[in-house]
Design goal:
The protein has 317 residues and is α+β, with helices and mostly antiparallel strands. It folds into three domains: 69 residues, Uridine Diphospho-n-acetylenolpyruvylglucosamine Reductase, domain 2, CATH 3.30.43; 139 residues, Uridine Diphospho-n-acetylenolpyruvylglucosamine Reductase, domain 3 (2-Layer Sandwich); 71 residues, Uridine Diphospho-n-acetylenolpyruvylglucosamine Reductase, domain 1, CATH 3.90.78.10. It is built from six helices and 16 strands. Helix 2 packs antiparallel against helix 4. The protein is globular, with a radius of gyration of 20 Å. The structure holds flavin-adenine dinucleotide (FAD). Flavin-adenine dinucleotide binds next to strand 3, helix 3, strand 8 and strand 12.
């Protein structure tokens, strides 16, 4: 395992924000990680798990501890399962380690003749983070395909949860509420058989379409979650409570603090202009519009992005 000292986090996040991390571990083997993980927690060393850094806003002061960049990415197929139970048609299972880029994973499933995951095409990030945050788009969520998840608990024990135990919700899971747990690998159940070539084409078309729609510039994706009037899952279209819509109606588009700017194209994207924004500027802008939206509509916006302090704590708005 390679360990880098004083590694700039700005190099590892989509936002391009973040100072030097004291220690940056490139974790390329899932098996040997358990001991290091448990020892880090027991010694109370600040820690941060890093996927692709597409949903993370790090501190300009960097990180006073260990950053674990998960790079293990093996895939194991269990093809014959559908006809096991007396010929009854079920799913095919594939287990994938957390460091696998989700887009590359979708394309591998396409090549095996499955198109279940196509709708998740174009969302940046790794499998582990997709599971932790139940990433989703186009009416599909990661949870829809999950059979089970293996994770390390705070003592370094490898445990398995089935889908129900993962307590998935809109951009939520049990792993999000337990920052001392690390998702190691996940088993997906796939059903939709398709021609490899056409499903790969579908995936790549969606990828291109999605990236055409994202506002240009550096960001961490949607800054705020869509609020639910019931405090539960994401709102339906009929309820109309979309963070982007509320922010746009409040007049957020184009507002700028320092080098942080609310995108002109999508009010729920806060951009890092010219790669020069500070974490504090992005936070100030987000706090400003959270307050205005509350005053105007009585709705409390909560960040979807993990805003991290220099010891791995969550900064709230
Ligand atoms: C342009 C753009 C568009 C986006 N569009 C969408 C969208 O349509 N839908 C959507 O859902 N999201 C979207 N996102 C957000 C992002 O793609 C997802 O949240 C994705 O799952 C993050 O993956 P990552 O590997 O980059 O995670 P990171 O940003 O590296 O990490 C995110 C959080 O997960 C934690 N984490 C990472 N791996 C693990 C693990 N194995 N175990 C436990 N914790 C872990 C990290 O510590 C951090 O708190 C978008 C982001 C961008 C930049």
């Amino acid at each position: 395992m390679e360990i880098l000292k004083n590694e700039p986090l700005s190099r590892h996040t989509f936002y391009g924000v973040g100072g030097l991390a004291d220690e940056f571990y490139k974790v390329d083997d899932a098996e040997s990680f358990a001991e290091l993980w448990a020892e880090t927690i027991q010694a109370k060393i600040p820690r941060l798990i890093l996927g692709k850094g597409s949903n993370l806003l790090c501190s300009d002061a960097g990180f006073r501890g260990r950053v674990f960049s998960l790079e293990f990415d093996k895939i194991t197929w269990d093809i014959p399962s559908p006809f096991r139970k007396g010929g009854k048609k079920g799913g095919f299972f594939v287990t994938v380690e957390s460091g696998k880029n989700f887009q590359a994973f979708i394309e591998e499933t396409n090549k095996q003749g499955f198109e279940d995951l196509c709708n998740l095409s174009g969302i940046p990030g790794n499998v582990g983070a997709f599971v932790r945050g139940n990433a989703g788009a186009f009416g599909s969520e990661t949870k829809d395909f999950i059979k089970s998840v293996e994770f390390l608990d705070e003592s370094g024990n490898l445990k398995t949860f089935n889908r129900e135990e993962c307590q998935f919700g809109y951009r939520e899971s049990v792993f999000k509420s337990h920052p001392d747990w690390c998702v190691i690998k996940s088993t997906f159940e796939l059903h939709q058989k398709a021609d490899p070539e056409s499903s790969l084409k579908k995936t790549r078309n969606l990828l291109a379409e999605r990236w055409r729609k994202y506002p240009p510039g550096r960001s961490g994706g949607s800054f705020f979650k869509n609020p639910s009037p019931l405090g539960g899952d994401a709102p339906s279209k009929a309820e109309g409570l979309f963070a982007g819509k509320l922010l746009e109606e409040a007049g957020a588009k184009g507002d700028t603090i320092g080098h942080a700017q609310v995108s002109e194209k999508h009010a729920n994207f806060i951009l890092n202009l010219e790669g020069k924004a500070k974490q504090s500027e992005i936070i100030e802008l987000a706090r400003k519009w959270k307050k205005i939206v509350f005053e105007k509509f009585g709705v409390t916006l909560e960040p979807e992005i993990f805003i991290c302090d220099e010891r791995g704590g969550k900064i709230t708005l």
